[in-house]
Write a structure and sequence with these properties.
Oligomer: heterodimer
Strand order of the largest sheet of chain B: 1-4
Radius of gyration of chain B: 23 Å
Shape of chain A: globular
Radius of gyration of chain A: 25 Å
Strand content of chain B: under 5%
Helix content of chain A: 25-40%
Order of helices and strands of chain B: HHHHHHHHEHEEHHHHEHHH
Largest interface: A-B, 67 and 54 residues
Largest sheet of chain A: 7 strands, mixed
Mean pLDDT of chain B: 82
Number of strands of chain B: 4
Helix content of chain B: over 70%
Low-confidence stretches of chain B: 1-45, 365-370
Number of helices of chain A: 18
Structural class of chain B: mainly alpha
Structural class of chain A: alpha/beta
Strand content of chain A: 15-25%
Number of strands of chain A: 23
Shape of chain B: globular
Low-confidence stretches of chain A: 1-41, 46-51, 550-558
Distance between the termini of chain B: 44 Å
Largest sheet of chain B: 2 strands, antiparallel
């Protein structure tokens, strides 16, 4: 659950607040806003240098990065100036994480140019990027819990003499840096384990400064912070930029971007759809349109004309896991597709796994066909007719070295067995039927799953539940890492299943997918269902508003 | 062949999308030859080449034997007798290794096997147990092995101890208990049936070798042809995926250690018979021999992959080395050095195979994008 591509973990302490508002923080207009109707199809590049006077420290031109099956970055433009806070905006999967990793030297771009301080640059590894002056503060802070503050700040480049660490010198310099960050009260000798989340973030920043960073990339830094700590974070960011340091700031919360940002670059599907927009007064709907404007055509199968779904299949009442989600109630009828929209960290995957029994609920019940399921038992859920395609295909669903057919029959091989002896011939025959009906490529079910593309691997996972007497299918991000063509096929499969009376509960961070595929939509934020509506009565912008509403900046919890 | 299988079972009812399947006009999917399943690799795939490599290694060892002692190898009846000696030498550790292979494929490790053999051997040769005769002795050896294995399994699956720690503790504790029961004395077996097992030949082949063969065949069938084997591979290969597919991972883990314990019980009877006695120090370091044999046999220490045939070849390679040193009158110390070297070489070969695979993928990826 930790390897989210574009993880946003909204702070839960600031829960509450109205979901609707994405009001701009009133600020004196610093530059003329591009208030024309947004032309979503063409990249928009605002006139540069309106608010920002510093020299250009970083320029990316047409950066492309592909992974097998995915074009994660597909022509990214980015220009960052000294002393500015440059915000990166984009939906989950837009390529923000990949872009950060390119800048941090984790990935190397396949093509395109990276210009760092006026010269072409290519960072072979994270150390090289750090030496060049680019520091990255990841969302999951990469600190060593059992080392001290000073040891963490200077991890990997400890001041040395004759092979011995100069501990006194290191502590002194750490103290200086912490003072510069406005936190002289943090003792350099304290173990990081004993610091609160905000303190750990300070240590991460101290590490960046210990490298004399000229550019600091912050990936959702406010996600781990409580309300009042965000103000402190912003104060530090302002002090850093005043010293000429550039900051790339990533957040899903538009309010934060308005407050701290200077310019905004918007990514979508690995492309820059807008660059250098003024952060304070670009209209919200403009930004949202840039984030969502389609270039990929989603092809959804048509919904059946008559909306008469069958009997109620699944009923969830007051399901709660503290810290993950609270008091969730929902129902799925036979033949109905119910979609859950929400950011990573909104509790949607955890909810799905709890319904499935892979996590134990702290409160609430799950009923299938009227019978209450034993909590925390996957076996009970499977026997009651549930099947799940989990979020992380490779780590949660597949035996990569095993042949396709054995993966397809992983949940059902026992049913084909006689007296404990497996029936490989029958299993292969069944798997071949599945492979045919799902148009799996390659068809040879004896090939190891490892050799399949992401889309075909997903078909194997879904196909697994077509074999049994599955009545309810739980799909967690079924199209992640799946190319466009295979997506359309998967949508067809899901719709066809529903047409046969299978209930489907679908989680996706891609809002159009939820809206296009589901009959009914639930919107989750910070562990709660904030809206439920038939798919026809809610549009993408409304969902995005609900999903990203910056409750954090809207005052005290309700 | 799909047409002839009973596809209209009730399980399918909820199954496939209505508009499919598209007909495969060329019939390519079905005209492929049926899977050729060879006896040495199950139907898992990659094991075949590795097992051929092990056979080649064995061949090299034999050639070394021929080169160093041409006088002995010139005598056909000596060669036959020596082959039986090697197999007999392999039999006890071989039985333990079969259980160990299951545990390792299932993602665990069992360091307590030698201690379990000793405890089961000592328990079955106390005067009290011997008074029940051969049946009582065999029963108690198997039961003790099974019970200790169950305790291991309970600690690991439900007590959530790391397998290494749980079985390390058991290794110490079981030997301690064996020493306590035997009062640190060697307990002589007076049962002629038990003592006869190791000295009996059937059709010119030692009974111990038949026992090994039976255990190996049973292990192979269990791993490759039963739901138990499939669960073992799933649980070791990806426990999370197994769990989410509805497999009871904990219960299966428990059963794996019980199976290992049972194998130790069988081994205890064989070893007691060979020595016509049992003592707390017997089966010393068997855990290392068994683990090493499984690993050079191609079982992945991280779980999810391994073959019974590979493990058997691993055991035979080890006993062939021992035999090679014996017929050349060399010391045990040098022998252990060679064994250590072979373990390292086997692991290196595994890494090279994986390394070259990932390198190949990486290179492929790089070239496809430029």
């Amino acid at each position: 659950m930790t390897q989210h591509e574009d993880g946003a973990v909204p702070g839960r302490r600031g829960a509450g607040g109205a979901g609707q508002g994405m009001r701009a923080v009133p600020e004196p207009p610093a530059a003329p806003a591009d208030s024309k109707e947004a032309d979503v199809t063409k990249p928009l590049v605002a006139a540069p240098a309106d608010t920002v006077a510093g020299e250009v420290v970083l320029r990316l031109t047409d950066v492309v990065k592909t992974f097998p099956g995915v074009r994660a970055l597909d022509g990214v433009q980015l220009e960052v100036r000294a002393g500015e806070v440059h915000c990166l905006l984009g939906q989950n999967g837009a390529g923000k994480s990949t872009l950060i990793k390119v800048l941090a030297g984790v990935h190397r771009p396949d093509s395109g140019e990276v210009e760092w301080r006026g010269e072409p640059a290519s960072f072979a590894n994270p150390q090289a990027a750090m030496r060049a002056g680019i520091a990255t503060i990841y969302q999951e802070l990469d600190l060593v819990e059992d080392l001290s503050v000073a040891e963490n700040a200077f991890l990997g480049h400890e001041p040395r003499r004759l092979g011995f660490v100069r501990r006194g010198h290191m502590a002194r310099r750490t103290r200086q840096i912490l003072a510069r960050l406005g936190h002289p009260e943090i003792p350099p000798g304290r173990l990081v384990r004993h610091l609160p989340a905000a303190g750990k973030q300070i240590v991460s920043m101290a590490r960046a400064l210990s490298h004399e960073a000229r550019l600091i990339i912050m990936d959702e830094p406010s996600a781990v912070l409580a309300h009042d700590e965000v103000g402190n974070l912003f104060r530090i960011i302002r002090e850093l930029t005043a010293q000429g340091i550039a900051v790339i700031y990533i957040s899903h919360r538009l309010e934060e971007i308005r407050e701290i940002g200077d310019r905004v670059t918007v990514l979508k599907d690995g492309r820059t759809t807008a660059a250098n927009l003024p952060a304070r007064d670009t209209p919200t709907n403009d930004l949202v349109a840039r984030m969502t404007g389609r270039t990929i055509e989603y092809v959804f199968p048509e919904r059946p004309a008559d909306e008469t779904a069958g009997a109620e299949l699944l009923r969830v009442d007051g399901l709660t896991r503290s810290g993950e989600f609270a008091d969730v109630s929902l129902a799925v009828r036979a033949g109905e597709i119910v979609g859950i929209a929400g950011l990573v960290g909104s509790g949607r995957s955890e909810l799905l796994e709890t319904i499935y029994g892979a996590r134990r609920a702290h409160a609430g019940t799950v009923r299938m066909g009227g019978r209450t399921l034993r909590p925390g038992s996957v076996g009970a859920a499977v026997r009651a007719g549930m099947g799940m395609a989990p979020e992380e295909r490779k780590s949660q669903a597949l035996l990569l070295g095993e042949p396709i057919y054995r993966n397809v029959t992983l949940a059902t091989f026992g049913r084909y067995a006689r007296l404990g002896f497996t029936d490989a011939r029958r299993e292969r025959a069944e798997a071949e039927q599945i492979a045919d009906s799902l148009e799996l490529r390659p068809r040879d079910v004896r090939r190891p799953v490892r050799t399949l593309s992401g889309g075909n691997q997903q078909k194997v996972v879904v196909g697994r539940w077509l074999l049994g007497d599955t009545r309810l299918l739980l799909l967690d991000e079924p199209t992640r890492g799946v190319d466009v063509g295979a997506r359309a096929e998967l949508y067809q499969v899901i719709r066809a299943l529903a047409a046969r009376g299978v209930g489907v509960l679908l989680v996706s961070s891609e809002v159009p997918e939820v809206l296009g595929l589901a009959d009914r939509v639930l919107v989750m934020r910070e562990g709660r269902v904030v809206r439920e509506a038939p798919a026809g009565e809610i549009d993408e912008n409304t969902v995005l508003d609900l999903v990203m509403a910056g409750s954090l900046m809207e005052g005290a919890p309700a | 062949m799909t047409e002839t299988t009973p596809t209209a079972t009730p399980e399918r009812a909820a199954g496939l999308p209505a508009q499919s399947p598209p007909v495969d006009p060329a019939g390519t999917a079905k005209s492929e030859p049926p899977a050729r399943l060879s006896w040495w690799r199950g139907d898992g795939g990659e094991g075949a080449r590795r097992n051929l490599g092990l056979l080649a290694t064995l061949l090299v060892l034999v050639v070394i034997g021929i080169l160093t002692r041409p006088d002995l190898y010139g005598n056909a009846s000596w060669v036959w007798g020596n082959t039986l000696t090697i197999l007999k030498l392999a039999s006890v550790v071989g039985v333990v290794t079969v259980g160990m292979t299951f545990v390792i494929i299932g993602g665990g490790i069992d360091l307590s096997v030698g201690a379990i053999v000793a405890l089961a051997g000592v328990w079955s040769t106390t005067l009290a147990t011997q008074s029940y005769g051969a049946g009582g002795m065999i029963f108690s050896a198997l039961t003790v092995g099974l019970a200790v294995g169950l305790v291991n399994g309970l600690l690991i699956s439900y007590g959530r101890l790391v397998p290494f720690i749980a079985t390390l503790a058991m290794m110490v504790a079981a030997r301690g208990l064996a020493a306590e029961i035997s009062d640190k004395q060697t307990q002589v077996s007076n049962d002629t049936f038990i003592n006869g097992i190791a000295s009996t030949n059937v059709l010119g082949i030692p009974l111990l070798v038949y026992i090994l063969a039976a255990v190996v065949v049973a292990g192979w069938v269990l791993l490759n042809r039963t739901t138990f084997g499939r669960r073992t591979v799933a649980v070791g290969g990806n426990p999370e995926a197994a769990r989410l597919a509805g497999i009871n991972v904990r219960r299966h883990t428990l059963l794996l250690y019980a199976l290992s314990g049972l194998c130790c019980g069988i081994a205890a009877v064989m070893l007691t018979s060979q020595a016509t006695s049992a003592q707390a120090a017997m089966a010393n370091l068997y855990e290392l021999d068994a683990i090493a044999a499984a690993i050079i046999g191609g079982t992945l220490l991280s779980g999810g992959r391994g073959t019974i045939v590979g493990s058997l070849l691993g055991v035979i390679i080890f006993s062939t080395i021992t035999n090679l040193f014996a017929i050349n009158g060399l010391s045990t110390e040098a022998q252990n050095m060679v064994k250590g070297g072979i373990i390292v070489a086997a692991v290196l070969v595994q890494q090279v195979q994986f390394g070259s695979l990932t390198q190949f993928l990486r290179r492929n990826r790089a070239t496809s994008t430029t």
